Amino acid sequence: MEIKIGTKEGVTVVEMCGRLDGSTSPQAQEQLLPLADSKCCMVLDLKECDYISSAGLRVLLMIAKQMTARGAECALANICDEVKDVMEMTGFSDFFKSFDDVAAACKTVRKKEEL
Amino acid sequence: MIRIDLHPTHTYKEFKLRTGKALPFGATIVPGGVNFSIYSSHATSCELVLFKKHEPKPFATIPFFDEFRIGNVFAMVVFDLDYEEIEYGFRIDGPFDPSQGHRFDKTKILMDPYAKAIGGRDIWGKDPDYSDIYQHRARIFNDDFDWENDHPLEVPTEDLIIYEMHVRGFTRHPSSGAKHPGTFAAIREKIPYLKELGVNCVEFLPIHEFDEFENSRISPVNGRRLMNYWGYSNVGFFAPKAGYAASGKFGMQVDEVKALVKELHKNGIEVILDVVFNHTAEGNEKGPYISYRGIDNRTYYLLTPEGYYYNFSGCGNTLNCNNPIVRNMILDCLRYWAADYHIDGFRFDLASILGRDQNGAPMHSPPLLETLAFDPILGKCKLIAEAWDAGGLYQVGSFPAWGRWAEWNGKYRDDLRKFLKGEPGLVGAMSQRVQGSPDLYRWQNRGSSASVNFITAHDGFTLKDMVSYNGKHNEANGENNNDGSNDNESWNCGHEGETDNPHINRLRNKQIKNAVTMLLVSQGTPMILSGDEMGNTQGGNNNAYCQDNEISWIDWGFREKNSEILDFVKNMIAFRKAHPALRNCQHFQNIDYMGSGYPDISWHGTKAWYADWSESSRVLAFLLCGKHAKGGTAMDNPIYVAMNMHWEMHGFELPQLPTDIAWYVCVNTDAEAGQDIWKVGQEKELDNQKEFLVGPHSVIILIGKRPAARQSDTQKTEARKNYQNKIKKNS
User: Fold this and answer.
1) Considering only CB atoms, which chain A residues are within 8 Å of B146?
2) What is the Cα–Cα distance from B18 to B27, expressed in whole angstroms?
């Protein structure tokens, strides 16, 4: 899994490319957790992520929870239909705001940041 | 805090290992690895076998070193496993000596009895690869579901309205419109329907992992594949059925079930699981090695002195429930479902087996049942017994209860059915059934909430079929119509099966309404079979255990076609919920202990205060004094119910009410749709307050309440009094 970290108008945008599963989630967790501790809101761009396993979803949830706890927000963008479907079946979707594109996601989390 | 036992101490080939923890049993994710622990009293050695998911051959076999065994438990930690991508099993060596009860076979790969997720039948109905050496594959799952603030609801048993449901059958029919038909996720989609209906508890037919292909065959009658559709045959007690999960193909069934329970709870709906601890899917000596047989046959099963399997379950074998090891496994299992899945209660299939000793004899105080009754983790769980077994033990009314166990009341079902079809001699029995069967439960001081009342359940006719068929029509099951019960106490109302005859159809609808009304005004806990509320039919099949098709699946088209029935059931549920006098947890005392002028319950007939108890009587009425509701702690209206199961109309003289209130009609099943039931608060005042003509085969409900005109008069009087009091105080 390749993780590219950038910034778009003050929002941390993380592109996650490849499979997020049991073998790649420890690495993802290691890279994302420090970002979740910073003050910025975050958008996870999953355009190039075609599979997220149960361990992967748990990493995303952990990040989201950590950010919510300190008043920031984490949104998902460009989730493929299959992953979206699994998230709905298993209730993970209840914890995330997800958007069709990064711009819309950034707009929402920025609002939260301005509050 | 840094632990000092997180590093490997042994290596085997490329694997790093160390001595494991004996408890908990099963596979547990620990820092850096996975702890595997398995019990066997008679094994001589044990190996852990690891597969990559779905792969036919194992990629590793790791022996448990001698120092990894503590007592009869083999335990080790294997480090650096990608736990999501593996499946594990055991090879266990020991004696093969059936006469001594031992059937060890080192060539077999055995599933962990404590497996929390099981692969191999990930997608329902997908043909298995029978050449696979490991059919039901233990998997490892993270148990860190985020429940937020969810909590089992702890609704008092007598306030429940249970809805018995087959997970797949509920939404599998294309008419359900569900996104993932036949799954846990689809039930989530249908929660608004359940809420609209008004039920506050769903009871799932078995959802533990089972093999739908067990005893699968082609029906000689219609060429369709017959399957183990109901699932009363466990492969694993700790794992949810993957094939019921839309996410089963991704191995995420655990999360899907938990998400469903959480959402049901959010909507005020409890979850009861139908659990089958009486036998397993391994069958008799000819059955497959799945798990228990090869791990410790003599411990897990009840065996004859010659080493054959006792068959008290009618399914080939009998789990040795009162063996201390097996008892602990059952306790661990229920604790796991209660604590990790937030399950609100359990219904125990053929529960009488749970009270047999290791030789199969019924026990006076079975330790397993006592343990479950007093277990702290299960302390608020509902425990419901199907109080009989296939070995002839019938314990309805006498199941060892310790004040905790409720029962499926089979006598309620039988008596109600007979009374409904107009049999004579049932009035006395009916008086007991509508009171929560004090004849069965009072002697143990168990209260009416010990009685789970039902007229239909998965096993038998649907309600619509009960009024449409005199006999079973199970030909499609391929057993020459020999399977299924012959004691249905059903009545086809004049024609066997579907008909266009409007008179018969009207009578059938009325009989359905009569049944629903009696069920929902009875003390105890009512249970409705899912689909009955919309007149679902199985075409007269009363044993659809093998029918994974339109015979069993609920046809949601009936929702529109039988809206008359559905509306009636919804309003009747709302009526029960609105009236606490119908939901007492203790039996009536038949006296007036509140000084209201009326006993808590009184009996009537065509003449008020005179019930006709004679053999030929088919009519009975009763009056609940609202002031005794919930043992006198709640206020309710007087409720009068008259049941006329005679084929002629009868005038019922109404008991006199206190002068400030009058009789209002809530239900009259003889009336046309729209006039048959009145919404709570919109009941219709009777013109004739002295007598009610109850139609043939009909039931009425009346309540006593203050008429609207008089109500406003009273309000005015009260307002005047208040005003005068105020003036007095001020002066």
Assistant:
1) 61, 65, 95
2) 14
Q: What is the pLDDT of residues A46-65, one digit of tens each?
A: 999 989 999 999 999 999 99
Q: Which of B272, B449, B450 is nearest to B378 (CA)?
A: B272
Cβ B262–A91 below 8 Å, yes or no? yes
**Catalytic status, residue B255:** no
Closest-CA residue to B146 (of A5, A115, A93, A102): A93
In a domain, B391, yes or no: no
CA B567 to chain centre: 24
Helix (H, G, I), strand (E, B) or coil at B728: helix
Which amino acid, B544? A
Q: Which of B420, B438, B234 is nearest to B317 (CA)?
A: B234
Give pLDDT, residue B156: 96
Sign of the alpha-carbon dihedral angle for B206, B207, B208, B210:
positive
- CA-nearest of B285, B286, B296, B348 to B320 is B296
N-to-C CA span, chain A: 34
* Res B725: pLDDT: 66
B349 catalytic per annotation: yes
In a domain, B95, yes or no: yes
Which residues on chain A place their C-beta less than 8 Å from a C-beta of chain B? 21-23, 53-55, 58, 61, 65, 85-86, 88-92, 94-95
| Domain contains B362 | no
Best CA proximity match to B27, nearest among B67, B78, B72, B61: B78
Q: Rg (Cα) of chain A, in Å, rounded? A: 13
- Burial (CB count <10 Å: 0-12, 13-18, 19+), residue B216: middle
| Alpha-carbon gap, residue B123 to B245, rounded angstroms | 8
Instruction: Kindly determine whether residue B84 and residue A89, on different chains, have CB atoms separated by under 8 Å.
Output: no
Tens digits of residue pLDDT in B561-584: 999 999 999 999 999 999 999 999
pLDDT tens for B152-165 read: 999 999 999 999 99
Give domain status of residue B238, yes or no: no
Q: How many domains does chain B have?
A: 2
- Residue among B143, B146, B149, B150 with most chain A CBs within 10 A, to mutate: B146
Which phi and psi (to 5°) does residue B540 adopt? Answer: 90, 5
As for the ipTM of the complex, it is: 0.94
Chain A residues inside the 8 Å CB shell of B258: 91
Q: Which among A55, A85, A94 is the nearest to B84, CB-wise?
A: A55
Radius of gyration of chain B (CA): 29
| Domain region containing A99 | 2-114
The CATH number for B75's domain is 2.60.40.10
Domain-terminating residue out of B104, B139, B174: B139
Per the structure, the complete domain to which residue B86 belongs is given by 10-139
Decide: B318 and B302 in contact? Cβ < 8 Å. yes
Q: How many domains does chain A have?
A: 1
Q: Residue B651 phi/psi, 5° resolution?
A: -85, 130
Cα B94 to Cα B46: distance, rounded to the nearest angstrom: 9
pLDDT under 50: residue ranges of chain B: 731
Look at the alpha carbons of B659, B661, B667, B670 in this order and tell me if their dihedral is positive or negative: positive
- Sort strands B698-705 and B639-644 into parallel, antiparallel or unpaired: antiparallel
Return all residues near A115 (Cβ < 8 A) that are at least 6 apart: none
Q: Is B213 exposed, middle or buried (0-12, 13-18, 19+ CB in 10 A)?
A: middle
H/E run at residue B573: helix B563-578
CATH of the domain at A98: 3.30.750.24
**Residues of chain B with C-beta less than 8 angstroms from the C-beta of A53:** 84, 250-251
Minimum Cα–Cα distance from B250: chain A residue: A53
pLDDT band with cut points at 50, 70 and 90 for residue A109 = confident
What pLDDT is attached to residue A73?
87
Is the pLDDT at A114 greater than 70? The verdict is: no
